[in-house]
């Protein structure tokens, strides 16, 4: 029976890959949340602009326009912060993707090594079987022809 000497390392590499993959998926979910939050803020800003235009057309007071201006500034700042948060998560996701690719490469390298070892073992067993069958054939031939 074939025994891969580096099997514990292969199991460890699979574990590492699985762990990194889970972190990658979690970051993908987090990025989607950040994108939804940013979209919601931008939609809110567009809605506020429409309301501002309507109020301005109706001839709103200066204090009301000032309140809208303050709210625009606050919302713009929130959008800027949310966009920065989204970029940060995207950067983490890109790094985690690189980590995942590296973990996969390391695991696949060991799996290829294991497969090559198994193939070499199978060739060795086949050679041994062929040699044994050859010896049996020679022995039978010698027995039948010695008489």
Structural domains: how many: 1
Largest sheet: none
Give the amount of beta strand, in percent: under 5%
Calculate the terminal CA-CA distance, rounded to whole Å: 41 Å
Average pLDDT, to the nearest integer? 94
Order of helices and strands, N to C?
HH
Give the overall silhouette. rod-shaped
As an assembly, this protein is single chain
Please mark out the parts with pLDDT under 50 across 5 or more consecutive residues, or reply none. none
Rounded radius of gyration (Å): 35 Å
User: Care to count the β-strands?
Assistant: 0
**What class, by secondary structure content?**
mainly alpha
Structure description:
With 147 residues, the chain is an all-alpha fold. It has one domain (7-111). Helices cover 93% and strands 0% of the residues. It has two helices and no strands. It has helices spanning 7-57, 62-146. The longest helix has 85 residues, at 62-146. The radius of gyration is 35 Å and the shape is rod-shaped. The model has no long low-confidence stretch (mean pLDDT 94).
A few lines on this structure:
With 147 residues, the protein is an all-alpha fold. The protein is built from 2 helices and no strands.
Blueprint (SSEs and pairs):
Layout: H1 7-57, H2 62-146
Helix pairs in contact: 1-2
Primary descriptors:
single chain; 147 residues; mainly alpha; 2 helices
